[in-house]
Design a protein that fits this description.
Elements lengths: L21 E3 L10 E3 L5 H12 L10 E2 L4 E2 L14 H4 L2 H7 L2 H20 L4 H13 L8 H7 L5 H5 L5 H11 L5 H12 L6 H12 L7 H7 L3 H18 L6 H10 L2
Antiparallel strand pairs: 1-2, 3-4
Helix pairs in contact: 4-5, 4-10, 5-9, 5-10, 8-9, 9-10, 10-11, 10-12, 11-12, 12-13
Length: about 270
Amino acid sequence: MPPGVTGTTARRVPGRHGQLPEVVGSGTAGWGAGVVEWAVPPPGRREARTQTRAGAAVVSPSLPTDSNRGTMVEPDPLPEQDPCARPEIAAFCPRVEEMVSSERYEHIQRVARLAVAIARANGFPKADAEAACLAAILHDAARDLSAEELFRLAPPENALEERQPLSVHGRAARVIAASWGVDDARVLEAIEGHVFGVGLDNRIGMAVYIADVCEPGRGVNDDIRELAMRDLTRAYEKAVGSKVQYLRSKGKSVHPATLKVYEQICH
């Protein structure tokens, strides 16, 4: 098992995508409510993807410089071109792929590749770059679930969430990740925080948040992506600030958690 992951026992639960979550027992509202059990994807599908990933060509990246410390960063033997080729990530990819649309899965792959690139450009230790990749692969695992399914995983905590079920998809994805054995707090916070933001002490969460808002498939925020390769904190501040300003310009409500992060980092 990779660091931050523990074993779990899964059982099949019928549902819209063939393996939807079942929350057993009661719990408080939030990411920790209940216990979730998941079915393992069909063996044939997992084996096919494993063969594809194992056979993928790997190109050795150039050795980057840690701009923060002026030291050389340990080379990554499995670069960002194929995040699911990483042994510590591979087991989660088919599970996520079963949960989302093909378009969503392509987005997830782009976010993971960019999150790794941002991590490497900012001198993350190899373990932290891997954690950012894992969080990125899992961040939208719940994005295509129905409102009923989302609220079962992550009960709404305020009126805005009741009106906008998709606002809880990060918290719901955190529940899913924990049920799959992920127990690294930074990864879980990054998964949940990709919607509302994270504190400046969670560089993994910052990398995933930035990658999500500016991955190339979105066609926007190229300036934030470029800035992230030089200055992670400034790029994150700009990403959060841009989100709040956009919502306000459209007369839309800003989630209290987003406002809290915005006030902490942008003032």
